[in-house]
Write a structure and sequence with these properties.
Layout: E1 3-4, H1 5-12, E2 15-17, E3 23-24, E4 26-27, E5 37-40, E6 57-61, E7 73-77, H2 80-95, E8 102-103, E9 108-109, E10 114-115, E11 120-121, E12 126-127, E13 132-133, E14 138-139, E15 144-145, E16 150-151, E17 156-157, E18 162-163, E19 168-169, E20 174-175, E21 180-181, E22 188-190, E23 196-198, E24 204-207, E25 212-213, E26 218-219, E27 226-229, E28 234-235, E29 240-241, E30 246-247, E31 252-253, E32 258-259, E33 264-265, E34 270-271, E35 276-277, E36 282-283, E37 288-289, E38 294-295, E39 305-307, E40 312-313, H3 314-325, H4 327-348
Parallel strand pairs: 4-5, 5-6, 6-7, 8-11, 9-12, 10-13, 11-14, 12-15, 13-16, 14-17, 15-18, 16-19, 17-20, 18-21, 19-24, 20-25, 21-26, 24-27, 25-28, 26-29, 27-30, 28-31, 29-32, 30-33, 31-34, 32-35, 33-36, 34-37, 35-38, 37-39
Antiparallel strand pairs: 1-3, 2-7, 22-23, 39-40
Length: about 350
């Protein structure tokens, strides 16, 4: 299937520089693209390939200046990365028109389950009592969907996902393989003899619309009430979300981050990989947390950037790192000054 520059520009609202009839049949990274392929530049690190690439069509930002002539047909847009993502979504939709439907065997679907239109349930999956699957839901092989789970329209559950009883999954959600939604929260009461008594976890998990959850990520159900993942949240692989946590809408969290129980993360936060967040705190909207940081207290000021463990203001942390790197030299200078001070004191005596 071929697409012209004019068709592509029309879809993404771009302005063409070059041949509007130039055609492509595939996509590739700019440094690897060949003739007949589409690529894009969004990161300044790759601008050198603008003049080297063999791509036929290239999507670039509208404000990117040219310092030399280029061979591809250019399509200028406000945000090249977002425009390219839009094209990939369209391509994915076109490819999914022939997607699987129906219930493969062997699979178990309870008689009390409600199954919407054009649903796919893969082999060896289990659909429990009173489950509700919306239209166009895709349940890949080997999934467990516990009793009373609800899944909204156009949601995709990849192979091996486990959805515990009473979990509520919204529309257009994607949950990748190996993820576990609704396992018990980590709740134990210390006993007089040094042992721990399990606290029953009787709450649930609510995942709202347009959320994506990476492979092997876990979202624990609440002790009481709900653990909530708000609209548009994106969770990477290998993330732990503890009981009664709430993740605000359109927050993005990178891999190997752990959020402890009853913490409220605000809207539009960007949290790097391997971040640790203690329980029972609040993180303000728009907070940016650098990778490997440890957050030990609430972040009250919105749109703050923080770094370090314990985490504090990002700029201040960079200054502290610079001082830390210079500590050996500073120690020598202090020792030298002490010697000079001793010599001066001896003279004055």
């Amino acid at each position: 299937m071929h697409f012209s520059a004019l068709q592509i520009a029309t879809h993404i609202g771009g302005k063409i520089e070059g041949d509007p009839e130039a055609k492509v049949s595939g996509v590739a990274k700019i440094e690897e693209a060949a003739e007949g392929q589409l690529s894009f530049i969004a990161n300044p690190k790759y601008q050198e390939y603008l003049y080297k690439t063999h791509a036929t069509i290239l999507i670039i930002n509208e404000d990117l200046p040219l310092t030399n002539s280029v061979s591809p047909t250019l399509i200028r847009v406000k945000d090249a990365y977002s425009a390219f993502a839009s094209l990939l979504s369209l391509y994915n939709e076109m490819m999914s028109q022939g997607r699987k439907k129906g219930i493969e065997q062997p699979a178990f679907v309870a008689t009390t389950a409600h199954i919407g239109k054009d649903v796919y349930v893969g082999a060896f999956s289990y659909i429990g009592e009173n489950v509700s699957l919306g239209d166009n839901v895709q349940i890949y092989p080997g999934c467990y969907v516990g009793d009373n789970v609800t899944i909204g329209n156009n949601t995709k559950i990849y192979a091996g996902v486990k959805l515990y009883d009473n979990s509520k999954i919204g529309a257009r959600v994607i949950i990748h393989s190996g993820s576990v939604i609704g396992a018990d929260g980590f709740g134990f009461a210390p006993e007089a003899d040094g042992s721990y008594k399990k606290i029953p976890q009787i709450g649930t998990v609510v995942i709202e619309d347009d959320v994506e959850i990476g492979a092997n990520t876990t979202v624990d159900k609440a002790t009481m009430g709900a653990t909530i993942i708000r609209n548009g949240v994106k969770l990477d692989n290998l993330i732990q979300i503890a009981h009664n946590t709430e993740i605000g809408s359109h927050t993005v969290i990178a891999a190997q981050t752990g959020v402890s129980g009853s913490t409220k993360v605000g809207k539009g936060c960007l949290i790097g990989g391997q971040v640790g967040i203690v329980g029972h705190i609040h993180i303000a909207d728009g907070t940016k947390v650098n990778a490997k940081s440890g957050i030990s207290k609430s972040v009250e000021q919105p749109d703050t950037a923080i770094n370090g463990s314990p985490a504090f203001d990002y700029r201040s942390s960079l200054k502290s790192q610079a001082v830390y790197r210079n500590l050996p030299e500073l120690q020598q200078r202090i020792a030298h000054l002490e010697e000079e001070l001793k010599a001066l004191s001896a003279v004055l005596k």
